[in-house]
Amino acid sequence: MFELSKKSWKWVIGLYTSAMWTTSLLWLTLVTYFIRDWQLAFKIYSSPMLFAILYIFYYPESPRWLLERGRTEEAIDWLCKIAKTNGVQIERSVITEQLTQLKDNRRSNNDVETHETVVDYLKRVKVSGRFCILIWIHSSAMLLWYNIVFATGTMNCCIYVTFTVMVLLEGPLRMSYNAFLLKRIRRKGIAFFISASSICFIILITLQRYEKEDEFWIPKLVFGVVSKLMVQSYMTYMFTIASEVSPTFFRARAMSALLAFGNLSSTCAPLILKMIGTNTPVFALLALLSANLIFFLPPVIQADLPNNLDDAERLALTAKKLFAF
């Protein structure tokens, strides 16, 4: 989706993913409240995923990726279909002429077309190093997210009330301020939201340790809801910047790998929390320290998506901070 939008609209794509996450959490809350058989609830909750099969027939292949792989005719076909869907009348010959001109300009700039591989990606330490930082931050944030979720029952007398309050606030509130902030920040958004979530959660567990007979239930609910709201907000910025710093041939792989490592952390979180308990600041402190690693990535606001590894490395030239690479 990032590759099909102009750079001034990339924030809209990030906002769209944020909205879908909130919708899915509301759906999860409703299903588990009315259906207490966890197996049946899981089947019903997962059923909308069947519609993803339609993406194969409906969603267009990225023309940018097809061009990078030398599949020019397929790219032209998709561009014609996209134009027709958008109600734009454009001749195939015009698209062909523009792409030919683009290729000629790249040759004149000594931008040789090469089929880059994952091995090439790993050899570029600056580029692959950025991705390792994103994986580490996302993994630590997912550990914190699950710590907050598993501690939901201690924030209020009813876990469904607490979670419903969280979801209802996350929807309109997170969408509204992300619509404003995502146009202007990426790295600062990740650092701020993870740090704020960590601090709120540490305050929450501190209240839990020193309260007597639920005397702090209102502050606990407030800090718990804010903590989850903050860590939920960071994800929009993470997946947006992950697409913006990855070259075309690796962009889809980057998103898949980021999700895979996040899922690995999600799998490990319940096992670790079972041993150390949910009333612990370990994951919050880890996320708090990890969040500031994001400033090692270059700024990407209004930057063109990198087509290849050379473009990805050149992103660092626009960095205003000394330690961005």
UniProtKB/TrEMBL annotation:
> What Pfam families would the database entry show?
Sugar_tr
Instruction: Report the membrane topology from the UniProt record.
Output: Multi-pass membrane protein
Q: What cellular component GO annotations does this protein have? A: membrane
**Molecular functions per Gene Ontology:** transmembrane transporter activity
Q: Does the keyword Secreted apply?
A: no
Q: Where are the transmembrane segments?
A: 12-35, 42-59, 144-169, 190-210, 222-242, 282-301
What keywords is this UniProt entry annotated with? Membrane, Transmembrane, Transmembrane helix
**Compartments, record wording:** Membrane
Give the top-rank taxon of the lineage listed in the UniProt record for this protein.
Eukaryota
Q: Supply the name of the protein.
A: Major facilitator superfamily (MFS) profile domain-containing protein
Per the UniProt record, the source organism is: Oikopleura dioica (Tunicate)
Q: What taxonomic ancestry is recorded? A: Eukaryota, Metazoa, Chordata, Tunicata, Appendicularia
